[in-house]
Design a protein that fits this description.
It is built from three helices and no strands. The chain is mainly α.
């Protein structure tokens, strides 16, 4: 997968993470989208590095999607913990 595919996957992973973790986010839609993109890269890197599960070159690989969504969830939870009260 190329960089554009990872960005698209990150956008979709951010949307899924937002669906799984509803509520107000400190960064709004743009912040959640950027967190999804960063989360997909983080999830792919963690999966390849620590779980010995190299990322496939296929866009529809379930493990790739799981890693991207998991990474987005982790970053979204961390972001809410750090900056959760900034949007009152």
């Amino acid at each position: 997968m190329g960089i554009i595919s990872w960005i698209v996957l990150g956008l979709l992973a951010g949307a899924v993470a937002k669906f799984l973790l509803p509520g107000r986010d400190p960064g709004g839609l743009i912040g959640t989208t950027l967190i999804g993109v960063a989360g997909s890269f983080l999830g792919g890197w963690l999966s390849a590095t620590f779980l010995d599960r190299p990322i496939q070159n296929e866009f529809y690989d379930p493990a790739t999607w799981g890693a991207a969504i998991g990474g987005a969830l982790v970053l979204l939870i961390g972001y809410r913990i750090l900056f959760g009260n900034s949007r009152n």
